[in-house]
Amino acid sequence: MSYQVPEKMKAWVLGNPGELTLQEKPVPQPDKAEVLVRVDAVAICATDLEIIERGLPAMIQGGTPFNKGFIPGHEYMGTVVKLGPGVDEYKVGDRVAVEIHAGCNGCERCREGMYTSCLNYGKNYEGNDKGHRANGFTTDGGFAEYAVNSIKTLTHIGDNVSDEEATLIVTAGTAMYGLDTLGGLVAGQSVVVSGPGPIGLMAVAVAKSLGANPVILTGTRDNRLELGKKLGADYTINVRNQDVVEAVKEITHGEGVNYVMECSGAPNAVNEASSMVKRGGKICLCAFPSKPVEVDVAALVRNNISLLGIRGEGRSAVHRAASLITEKRFDASLIHTHTFSFEQLPTALKYSKERIEDAIKVVVKIPG
C-alpha cells in the first residue's frame, strides 16, 4: 500500500492570543523512529482552548501564547502514510491513535515511565534539543492535514473502532494513568469520580471495566450524570442537591471510599475528597483549578491520605485504554456529541468552549 503525499498541506496556525489562521505549510518529513500520519480526525480538548488563548496550562507565560507560530491540537488519530528510516514497528496504511508526549528517554522520570513529566519537557528548541516532544503543546500538533510522530507515541487502532472513538483513546488513557497512579488494582474497590467532563466520564468507564465497585460519579449537571450511568457509574450525586460527603458516606455505610479521582478542578474539591476517602485512602488530581486553592493539610496528615497528581497519559496507559475500547468494554462514542469539517475548526472550538448544545467531545474530521 502506498499514498501520494503532497508537498504542501493546510494547517491551523496559532498567532496572537486566540488567533488561528488556516495556512498552507510544507508537509513535514519523518526522521529516524518517526512516521508521517495523515490526520483523519481530531477532538477538541479544554487544554487546546487554554493553549490557544493563554498558553500552556499551569505555566507562567507572561500573557503570551505558548509557542506562537505552531500548530495546536493533540487528541488526534490518523493513518500512517510514510515511514522514517529504520521504522518497522508500523507500516504504511496502519490506523493509529496518537499520544501527546514523547519523552527524552534519558532523564530519571522517563526511565520510570513518567514521560509526561520528562525533566527535559519543552527543551526542543534550536540549540537545546533534548528529544522531548509534546505534539500540540510544545511541537506541531493535529490541527493539520499531516503530522510527524515518534513511534513512541502511537498505538494501533482496531478495525471496529471508528475515527471518532479513536480520538477519545488518549482521554481514556489519562483516566487509566490516574487509576494506575492510585494503585492500579481496583477490582472490588470503591471509587469516587468528581466532575463528569470527558476525563471524568472516561474515568468512570475505565474504573468500572477494571472491576471497581461501587463507582460513584459526582457533578452539577443531571444529563452528564445520566451519561455517567450509561458508562458504568453505580451511583450519581448532584452536588447542588445533596451534601456530597454525606451522600458518599451513606452509600459506603459510613466508611468512605478507597480512591477519589478528582476531575473537576473545583475550589473545594480536594477538601471534599479528603472527607470522602477512608483513612489511608488515596486522591488523584486530574484537573487544573482556575486559581490557587486552600487545602486542609492537617486532615490529610491526620488520616494518612495520599494526595497524588498526574499529567496526561504516562506509563503506556494509552495502549491499555485502546484495548478496552477495541474490546468494547464500554461505549466511548457516548461522549462524542458533535462533528465538524476541517474548515469549521473555529466553530468546533466555539461549541466546545461554550458547551453549545451540551457539547462534550467535539470532533473535527479531515478528509483524506
Automatic annotation (TrEMBL):
Keywords: Metal-binding, Oxidoreductase, Zinc. The keyword Glycosyltransferase does not apply. PROSITE patterns: ADH_ZINC. Belongs to the zinc-containing alcohol dehydrogenase family. It holds the Pfam family ADH_N. The keyword rRNA-binding does not apply. Its cofactor is Zn(2+). GO terms for molecular function: oxidoreductase activity; zinc ion binding. It comes from the Bacteria. This is Chlorophyll synthesis pathway protein BchC. Residues 15-364 form the Enoyl reductase (ER) domain. InterPro entries: ADH-like_C (IPR013149), ADH-like_N (IPR013154), ADH_Zn_CS (IPR002328), ER (IPR020843), GroES-like_sf (IPR011032), NAD(P)-bd_dom_sf (IPR036291), Zn_alcohol_dh (IPR050129). It comes from Anaerotruncus colihominis DSM 17241.
